[in-house]
Specification:
Structural class of chain A: mainly beta
Strand order of the largest sheet of chain B: 1-3-2-4
Largest sheet of chain B: 4 strands, antiparallel
Oligomer: heterodimer
Largest sheet of chain A: 6 strands, mixed, barrel
Number of strands of chain A: 11
Shape of chain A: globular
Helix content of chain A: under 10%
Radius of gyration of chain A: 15 Å
Structural class of chain B: alpha+beta
Number of helices of chain B: 2
Chain lengths: 137, 106
């Protein structure tokens, strides 16, 4: 991971109050949903090819929503995802089939946020990502 | 005898990059969102801030659906491989009336 001490990501709220933030997937800029409720970062299957994400049918994982339903999905790797000044390389990525009228590009989950402190300014729609202070030994 | 000119139908809005065969001047992302409300857009970024937030760019494609937009965006990226092409929707991604609850567990 490479980052500066704090990164201010200018997002915006979508219908229902969810936060959409600009990201770069493999160097290509787009918008993802900020979803700290998700364990794994995910991309919409219909956009995977455009963003250079390969689907390997041999790598599968199960996902579950807040309901009881479990769905088989593909697991891939994002060579590089950047949010603000924070970059993750070779990040595990779930490939999800969203409903047809649900054109989200994807979502940023906890595996991206691991090791960071994050804050959402609810008045400005800004996501702030910080590295925690290094502990003194 | 009065003659009336037949009205010529307005040409559909063309992506800015294709007007006069040259790129138009950059607009702020906020202005682009305002001008192209509820459209899918591909914007060739000309300015980002220190945190990599897109600030301004040139609209090179716009479409009412993502399928049409991404066909055009693929073509533009193939013609301009060095371009930072920001694709997004100028409006809500989540359909009105739908509340999203996404949890993805390993």
């Amino acid at each position: 991971m490479s980052s500066i001490s704090a990164s201010r990501v200018a997002g915006r709220f979508d219908f229902g109050g969810v936060l959409i933030v600009p990201i770069e997937m493999n160097g290509i800029p787009t918008d993802f949903l900020f979803d700290p409720g998700a364990a794994v970062t995910a991309i919409n299957q219909k956009f995977a090819e455009y963003f250079g994400v390969r689907i390997d049918p041999a790598r599968q994982m199960k996902i579950t929503a807040a309901s009881e339903e479990r769905v088989d999905t593909f697991l891939s790797t994002a060579e590089e995802i950047r949010v603000g000044s924070v970059t993750r390389k070779n990040l595990p990525l779930s490939i999800i089939k969203f409903p047809p009228d649900f054109d989200l590009h994807g979502l940023i989950g906890m595996n991206f946020l691991k090791g960071l402190r994050f804050t959402v300014e609810m008045d400005t729609g800004t996501l702030i990502l910080r590295e925690p202070p290094k502990s003194k030994k | 005898m009065k003659t009336t000119k037949a009205k010529t139908p307005k040409a559909p809005k063309q992506p800015q990059a294709h007007r006069n065969g040259k790129l138009d001047k950059p607009l702020t992302i906020a202005k682009i969102r305002e001008l192209y409300k509820d459209q899918w857009l591909a914007v060739h970024l000309t300015k980002v801030d220190r945190y990599n937030n897109p600030l301004a760019g040139i609209v090179v494609a716009n479409a009412p659906t993502s399928d049409v937009l991404y066909t055009q965006a693929k073509q533009y990226r193939s013609d301009h491989p060095a371009a930072k092409l920001y694709t997004f929707r100028a409006g809500n991604y989540i359909p009105e009336g739908v509340v999203i609850v996404l949890d993805i567990c390993e």
